[in-house]
Amino acid sequence: MKIIIHIDCSILTNAHYNTSSSERINKYYTGLLSLFKYMDFFTSNNIDLLLVDNTIDSLDEVPLIKNIIPPNVRIIVKRNNHYGKINKGAGCFEHWIMGKDIWKNYDYLIHFEGRQILINNKFMEEFIKQPISTFSWAHKKKSAPSGYFVKKDKKFDLNLFGIDNFHNKNSENNDYYTGIFAMDICFFRKFIEDMNLEIMCQKHTALEKALMCFTYYNIDNFRMVNKTYVWRGGDKNDYNSINQN
Question: pTM of the predicted model, to two decimals?
Answer without folding.
Answer: 0.89
